[in-house]
Structures are given as C-alpha cells and as structure tokens.
Design brief:
single chain, 3 domains, seven-stranded mixed β-sheet, five-stranded parallel β-sheet, 15 helices, binds flavin-adenine dinucleotide
C-alpha cells in the first residue's frame, strides 16, 4: 500500500486524511499539538473545556461527505443543532439587530427598526449573493486552478458579479442604514479579511448561510473533532500528536521521508496542512516558484486575541453569537489591518454556546469566549506586556454592554494572543486565518494545492484554494484530492 503523510490536523488535514484513505493510501497524520483539530482543537483549563476556534458550522454536508465516503453516517458520530438567530449585532448606541434563521422575521425587524427600503434592498442583496454563490461557490470552490489561464474562462462571469468591488461597497449599494451596512458586510472578518478590501466574491457566505443554515455541534465543535478521531480508529488512519515535523528529505524532486522531533517516516506522498508562509521557509527551506507567493509580499490576515472564560451566573438572555460593534469601524479596521497598531476600542464577537446547547453548562456555570481582531505580529505589540491590560479592557466593555457585573462573576479565564498562533500553530506572523481573501490572493493567486517544486507534495487548509473557514478548508481537500488523482493516483 502506498504511504501518505498529512502534516497537521486542522479541518483541512482531517478532510484530506479521509480522502486519501478512500484512495487506498496508508495514511499517517502528524500533529504538533497534544490534540487534533488545529484551530478547532479543545483547550482545557482548570476543569473547563473550551472550543478554541470555529463555532459557526455552515455547509454541514461537506463534513458529512467525509463520513459517507466510507459508508458511515456522521449523525452516528455527532449531532448538529440549529442556531437561532445566526447572529445578534449589538451597536454602539445600544440598539441591536437579529440576523438569520427566519427571513420573514428578519425583514419585519428591518422594516420596523430601519426602513422599508432597507428591507427590499436586503432582498436584492441576497439575490446578488446567490448569483455570486452560483458561480464562485458551486463552480469554483473545488476547482483546481493549476495555471493562470485556468482562471480566464471565468473572468466574464466574475465581471458580471462585480468581483472588483469590495464587500463593503457592494453592500452599501443595496442598503441605506449605516448599522445594517456594518452588519451585513462583516462576513469577510470570519475568514480573515477587511470588509473594505475583500473582494465581493465573499458575499457568497451570506447566501450560503441562508441556504444550509448555521449550526453548532452538540457538546461543542470538539464533538466533531472527536467524531473524526473515532472514524480514524475505525479506518486505521494513524495519527500522532505531540509530533512536530522539522524537515523533509527529498531526491529527484520527490519527498521520500518526513523528519519529526523524534522520528523519520518514509512516505510516497505528503500533504501539508500547515501555513505555507511558514512551511516554505521553515520546513522546505526554499522560496515558492510562483513569484507572487513570497511570504514577504503577501498580505496576511489580522491577528486574534481570544479570551475564554466561565461565570458563576448564567446569562440566559445572551444569544449564542453576538457581534458587538464599537464606535469606530473603518478606521478601527485600518488600525488593525494596515497600520498594525495596538487598539483599545475593539469590536468583539461573543460566543455563548449554552444558548443553543445546555450541555455547555459546565460545573454549573456559563462558558464563553470573546474574540477581538487585532494586528498580527507584523506589529510591534508585546502581548506579554499588553495581554492582561487588553483582557481587562474587554471585560470592562462586556460588563457595560452585555454581561453586567462580569468582573465579579468570572470563575475561570485565560487568553491567547497572536503569539499562540505564531509559536503553537506555526502561523506566519501569528495571523489568525493565513493569507487574506483579497482578489490578488484568490484562486490561482493563492498558494498552490499541488507544489510546483516537489512532485509528491500537496497543500490543504487556509493558505491554499479556496481559503479559510471550515467550509473553505474542507473544500481545499476536494481540490487536492483531484490533483492527487491526476498526478499520483
Ligand atoms: C478563534 C477562531 C474562530 C473561528 N471561527 C470560525 C467559525 O466559527 N466558523 C468557520 O467556518 N471558521 C472559523 N474560523 C476559521 C477556521 O477555524 C480555520 O480557517 C480552519 O479551521 C483552519 O483549518 P486548517 O485546515 O487550515 O488548519 P489549522 O486549523 O490551521 O491547523 C493546522 C495544524 O497544523 C499543525 N502544524 C503546524 N506546523 C506543524 C508541524 N511542523 N508539524 C506538525 N503539525 C504542525 C498545527 O498545530 C495545526 O494543528 C475560526 C478561526 C479562529 C482562529
């Protein structure tokens, strides 16, 4: 049996491991961290469990496909619960708007709180989002762009959907109310982009959410990762944790061995699920052949500061996903993405899983995480010094806006900063999502799913096509599967 090694166990790595096994490879997954999942791993702290990252599960059929490839039903492994509303948006003046789950309810809320024109504008926006989805998602999300020419046939369609506009400017052409524009253009932030510079192709996420819904895994995203672990055991997919790849050995443009901190593994094929901006210089020790793929010239996504905490009190009226906008918007994003300076007025995403799933009441307390986009480590912020200050600041904002008396209710807390992403997950400059989703870093312009330097090396995950987010990285494994079948099948 031919051997394949997958480096990294993020959703992209888990997905390609399942696909390689279905192609009859003897698969081994090597993971640096003590548990599987990458950004979706579980963090344990003082007897509490927290999902480290993804909590919004969309396009669940993509996960199901990986189980049905092996004639298994994902529902025997984990259960998905509907999230209602998808998000609550909380604005600086204290007003809020609930997005998703029922279009009828949402349009009524729009008419009452904003205007009839905004409600009709939203329907037009959704129609536009569907048009983008039909092209960019249905046709291109699992299409292997091997050459620049492979993009050409799609240019007329991309022109029609106005890919050259940013998400923010597209949304603004349909809606009038500034709050609504802010809210309905936030989706790029979920995949590492600034709404003011991300290509409007990413408006497709909005239609995707309506089409298949927004879910949360009962027991946490960790129950999906545990489901994969169980599936791996059943399929004889081996995995090793606490196992960091430190190099590769190659001959005649082919990798024959992968070197880890404690072993050397022979292999016929390698798929890296790591950040390519780290993998090229640190592991391959070469520059990518594609000239526009040099880490130094690529734009990497923002960093993330995530505070995990549990409270004595159960905040029953707080929704599952709340996005709390601060006063500044465009300027705040410029400070984070372009100027890369320390901010003290973050916008926040608050995750309260118990709103959907009572299994997340742990030790009789409510558990949360709150995420703040911040500058990545291209900034000169010293998080060892600034971390505590920033954490107190966030607690103060939450106390004032949504979780009264939070400071006195907290019984457990800890945080991660861009340093965690850089040193623990090997993410270039601690970026939260890899390279940004701007047009000149999309499709063929992203890192290649098949290496142009070594014949049996492939990539999956946020750095490759189509990009970040759970549906994106699982789709990247579909692209990579097609290329493996073509070249190494
Ligand atoms: C806080 C947060 C919240 C998010 N929320 C959502 C959400 O709600 N919904 C959504 O769809 N997306 C969300 N995302 C984005 C999504 O989580 C990611 O885009 C996706 O999970 C990344 O998967 P990946 O396959 O690229 O691999 P990653 O998760 O990045 O995993 C890569 C793995 O490679 C390992 N590795 C690196 N170097 C080595 C080495 N040398 N040897 C061995 N192993 C190595 C790392 O330890 C890591 O486990 C969120 C991200 C974050 C950070």
């Amino acid at each position: 049996m031919k051997k394949a090694i997958v480096i990294g166990s993020g959703f992209g790595g888990l997905a390609i491991a399942c696909r390689l096994r279905a192609m009859q490879y003897d698969v081994k997954v090597l993971e640096k961290q003590p548990n599987l999942g990458g950004r979706a791993r579980t963090l344990n702290h003082n007897g509490f469990e927290y999902d480290a990252g993804p909590t919004v599960i969309t396009a669940p059929y993509l996960i199901n496909e990986l189980f049905s490839l092996h004639e298994e039903d994902s529902r025997d492994y984990f259960n998905l619960l509907k999230v209602e509303p998808f998000y609550r948006f909380l604005f600086n003046d204290g007003s809020y708007f609930d997005y998703g789950s029922s279009l009828k309810r949402m349009l009524t809320e729009m008419k009452t709180k904003y205007s009839k024109e905004d409600a009709t504008g939203y329907l037009k926006l959704l129609k536009h989002s569907k048009r983008i989805f039909n092209t960019a998602y249905l046709k291109l999300s699992d299409y292997p762009f091997e050459t620049l020419n492979s993009m050409l046939p799609y240019i007329p369609e991309l022109m029609k959907i106005k890919f050259y506009k940013s998400v923010h400017s597209s949304v603004k052409s349909y809606l009038n109310n500034p709050h609504l524009i802010q809210a309905m253009s936030m989706h790029p932030l979920l995949v590492g982009g600034n709404p003011y510079t991300t290509t409007s192709i990413y408006l497709l996420i909005q239609y995707l959410e309506w089409k298949w819904g927004v879910y949360y895994a009962e027991g946490g995203t960790r129950s999906i990762i545990n489901g994969f672990e169980k599936l791996f055991k059943k399929l004889n997919i081996e995995y090793e944790t606490n196992c960091e790849v430190i190099g590769i050995e190659n001959k005649n443009n082919k990798i024959h061995s992968v070197v880890t901190n404690n072993n050397v593994y022979e292999t016929n094929l390698v798929v890296s699920n790591t950040d390519p901006s780290y993998f090229y210089p640190e592991i391959l020790k070469i520059k990518p052949k594609k000239i526009f793929n040099k880490p130094a010239i690529l734009k990497h996504s923002m960093g993330l500061f995530v505070l995990y905490f549990s409270t004595k009190k159960q905040y029953d009226d707080v929704k599952h996903h709340t996005i709390i906008f601060n006063k500044r918007h465009k300027e705040l994003l410029e400070d984070i993405f372009d100027k890369k300076v320390f901010i003290d007025d973050p916008s926040l995403y608050l995750h309260r899983p118990a709103a959907t799933d009572k299994k997340n009441i742990q030790n009789n307390s409510d558990s949360f995480y709150v995420l703040a986009p911040v500058a990545n480590n291209e900034s000169s912020i010293d998080w060892d010094i600034k971390g505590e200050e920033f954490s107190s600041h966030i607690i103060q904002i939450l106390s004032e806006k949504i979780l009264p008396n939070l400071k006195n209710e907290i019984i457990n807390k800890f945080f991660i900063t861009p340093n965690y992403f850089e040193s623990d997950l090997n993410s270039f400059k601690g970026s939260g999502f890899g390279i940004q989703p701007i047009f000149r870093q999309s499709a063929y312009f992203r890192y290649s799913n098949k290496s142009k330097e070594l014949n049996n090396l492939y990539f999956v995950g946020a750095g490759s096509h189509p990009g970040a987010g759970v549906p994106g990285v699982i789709s990247s494994a579909k692209v990579t599967e097609k290329l493996i079948l073509k070249y190494n099948g």
